[in-house]
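Project outcomes to date are best conveyed with an example. Our students and postdoctoral researchers have been running inverse folding experiments weekly, and each run begins with a structure described purely in tokens. The record below, which covers 219 residues, was selected by the lab manager from last quarter's runs and is presented without edits.
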């Protein structure tokens, strides 16, 4: 029993160490990119030894993959899960869009959206890390498009399914533009502009104005 308790204690400490290191890794990668996320750089940022980090993640690629997984969990918990309390379609779509803007604006990661920051590092470099980032973004893009299509199917938007794909693309592009411009200019104003543009585009698509109030980021 004592041996089992000791083993459980070591596992708990190892899990806590891993979570702490990954919290620093996701934030660091959002600023410096995945290419800048090395065991040495993370050791410097976290105050831990290179050997302890190498033991936790078994090399640079293991560290990068674990960091993408951790960032994806935060992204889903911050943006997607709260929106799932709303019914599928327009109501869930507008909450998703607001959550995405606020996640970047409030700097959940210091460098804004983790995936926007890291996609440029890996988009032309095939391999497991590229695949992990691509999968996370593809799931996000697909989820927004699915809610747009559900809104069309429910008669909440007066467009057809072919137009739904274009609308989802436009809404996501506004979110990404707000993230990049805010980081570049050091200004929150792009989020309010993006939210206003999203509302305008949804109104043109036939959305009920009363359902779009959640996108008011004027404050």
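After processing, the design step wrote out the following sequence:
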């Amino acid at each position: 029993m004592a041996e089992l308790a000791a083993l459980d204690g070591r596992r708990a400490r190892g899990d806590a160490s891993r979570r702490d290191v990954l919290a620093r890794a996701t934030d660091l990668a959002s600023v410096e990119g995945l290419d800048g996320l090395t065991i040495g750089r993370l050791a410097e940022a976290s105050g831990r030894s290179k050997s302890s980090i190498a033991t936790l993640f078994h090399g640079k690629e293991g560290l990068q993959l674990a960091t993408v997984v951790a960032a994806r969990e935060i992204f889903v918990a911050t943006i997607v899960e709260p929106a799932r309390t709303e019914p599928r379609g327009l109501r869930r779509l507008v909450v998703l869009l607001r959550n995405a803007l606020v996640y970047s604006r409030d700097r959940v990661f210091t460098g804004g959206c983790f995936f926007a920051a890291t996609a440029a590092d890996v988009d032309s470099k095939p391999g497991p890390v590229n695949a992990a980032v691509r999968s996370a973004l593809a799931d996000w893009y697909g989820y927004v498009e699915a809610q747009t299509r559900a809104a069309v199917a429910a008669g909440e938007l007066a467009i057809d399914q072919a137009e739904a794909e274009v609308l989802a693309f436009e809404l996501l592009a506004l979110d990404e533009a707000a993230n990049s411009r805010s980081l570049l200019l050091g200004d929150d104003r792009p989020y309010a502009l993006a939210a206003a543009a999203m509302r305008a585009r949804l109104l043109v698509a036939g959305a009920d104005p009363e359902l779009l109030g959640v996108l008011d980021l004027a404050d």
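The CA atoms of residues 146 and 184 lie 31 Å apart. DSSP finds nine helices and no strands in the chain. The training component of this project remains on track.
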